[in-house]
Amino acid sequence: MPYDTLLSPVTLGTLELPNRVVMAPLTRNRASQPGDVPSEMNAHYYAQRASAGLIVTEATQVSRQGQGYFATPGIYSDAQEAGWKAVAGAVHARHGRIASQLWHVGRVSHRSLQEGGAPPVAPSAVRARNTQVFVKNDDGSYAMTDADDPRALETDELPGIVLQFVDAAHRAKRAGFDMIEVHAANGYLLHQFMATGTNHRTDDYGGGIENRVRLVVDVLEAVASVMGSNRVGMRISPNFAGFDLHDDEGEASSLYLAQEAKRIGIAYLHLAEGDWAGGAPLSEDYRRALRDAYDGAIIVCGEYTAEEANARIERGEADAVAFGRAYIANPDLVERFRRGAPLNTPDEATFYGGGEKGYTDYPSLDAAAD
Question: Record's Pfam families (predicted)?
Fold first, then answer.
């Protein structure tokens, strides 16, 4: 077997995985309307990929306020919860494991996506320049449009943000998810609070690293209290360079957060590397420092090949590797790695929005052989 280590079992918290191949969270903009509800088609898509060691769902907004793109799924209504219960059930029926990634976009949004046309919210009123979001126009057409000017959240609103994540965590638990992943990466709200370029606050949630990380820690503790810390993970991206995010202390703040994650006792950190978004590569010194700061499992996600992923795990620098684009086009990715088989090429024209084409119609090895 060419990738013995990548295909070997591993444990995240109390969840045993049969392999170390993780399906990365992938925004596909295919939630049913109205209501941004997961559909039967979404359930089929995830079930096709159930052989992954762990599936992490597409980012899922914890509230209407947390939405930044049209047709991304939510987990704040009864209908959405029921939709996700069907998704989790479909994955479990094929003996898979699935985590719900909880998400608030913060300033990366547009008034048309917000309740009553309200402005998006952020740590500070700093617009995400050169950043576009996917919206539906009044005439029913779809378009990419510039993110709107945000307003700064008041201090007394921040407990409400935490409660949005708490409510979503309760819904995810009732829906039958095996784990919850808190999205604190990729320039969205929790990351905006951490970053020096987007957090200019003068209250207890701004200033030094401890204060800038405070909201993330509050959310993490609250979600862990609902799900159990050993069934919670968190995504971080210390060198992310998209959505006009600037952070002079990205690595330092992520290491502080990793220490807090260790204290809380969460199951894993999901390290999103910057290579897919123009960020600088992570140094080997940083990788070692992260291992020293945090004692749980580490999942890495970037433009890895199976060979590179296997080597990264063998060197002890990660416990599992998440694959994104490869999972779009290869529902049987684990089996392809096991056989050393070629991969299907994803169709970029069908990444966002649409129906089954480019979503559930990629052939498996067995189907291709028929």
Answer: Oxidored_FMN
